[in-house]
Design a protein that fits this description.
The complex is a heterodimer. Chain A is 24% helix and 28% strand. In chain A, strands 2-1-5-3-4 form a five-stranded mixed beta sheet, with no helix packed on it. Chain A has helices at residues 9-15, 29-40, and strands spanning 2-6, 19-23, 50-53, 56-58, 69-73. By secondary structure, chain A is of the alpha+beta class. Chain B is α+β, with helices and mostly antiparallel strands. Chain B has helices spanning 11-16, 51-68, 99-116, 143-147; strands at residues 2-5, 25-32, 36-37, 40-49, 71-79, 81-84, 88-96, 119-125, 130-132. The longest helix of chain B has 18 residues, at 51-68. The chains are: A alpha+beta, B alpha+beta.
């Protein structure tokens, strides 16, 4: 399954890119993060993040579909 | 309404959007860039947003405030990009018939925005070091390795 992943803030720096298309066996955002954390050396644990699919907050166990756009959201610090 | 802007926030224009003949009061909050955080001397900072979701979540927060408190108008504007010390990072304004609900709605909006909207802040320090607020110290060393 081919997915689009966009990176922000600390994850963007650690991934060394703002986005990528990825062919992955991951069926859920949780599985996808574990795969990407291993590949890019992310230091944030999944428990510290939220996830968005197609620009809306999502459950970690949601079934991903081909073409979905996924964003992992590190702890926020607006204001 | 909730907006992101790469330009300095025009508080005069923002305030004018809240004017209402039925409003007897107006409350605003400005968040400024401070020169120190957690014992480190800050020289400047950068805000980065996941814009599409930030605006959605920001709009949700303003709608929630309007549902909780009977205000006339409410607006929040948040900067993105590079900011210097004392620059305004965020502005919240609320107009209402009476002052009480304007204070409460303004407080609700800024508190929720800080906790929920996908905006990140990278601080640059006098030491030359830098860090993403709320991300560096909570990082788990070796976590990615353990996953691998």
């Amino acid at each position: 399954m081919r997915l689009k992943i966009q990176y922000y803030a600390l994850l963007r720096e650690q991934a060394g890119r703002s986005e990528e298309w990825l062919e992955t066996p991951a069926a859920t955002p949780a599985g996808l993060y574990d795969e990407l954390a291993a590949r890019h050396g992310f230091t944030l644990a999944r428990e510290q993040l939220k996830v968005a699919v197609n620009s809306e907050f999502s459950d970690w166990a949601r079934a991903l579909e081909a073409g979905d756009s996924v964003v992992f959201i590190p702890p926020v610090a607006g204001g | 309404m909730f907006r992101l802007t790469p330009q300095p926030i025009d508080t005069g224009a923002a305030r004018r959007e809240l004017r209402d003949a039925g409003a007897g009061g107006y409350v605003s909050f400005e968040g400024w860039v401070r020169d120190q955080n957690e014992g480190k001397q800050v020289t400047r900072l950068e805000y980065e947003a996941f814009a599409e979701l930030a605006v959605k979540e920001g709009e949700r927060i303003v709608r929630e405030a309007r549902a909780r408190y009977p205000v006339k108008h409410a607006l929040c504007v948040h900067r993105v990009g590079s900011l210097d010390l004392a620059d305004m990072a965020v502005w919240v304004g609320v107009s209402s018939e009476h002052r009480g609900e304007a204070f409460e709605a303004c407080r609700y909006i800024i508190d929720e925005v800080k906790h929920r909207v996908p905006i990140w802040k990278k601080e640059h320090y006098v030491s030359g070091d830098s860090g993403w607020v709320n991300c560096e110290r909570c990082a788990v060393p070796g976590h990615a390795h353990r996953l691998g």
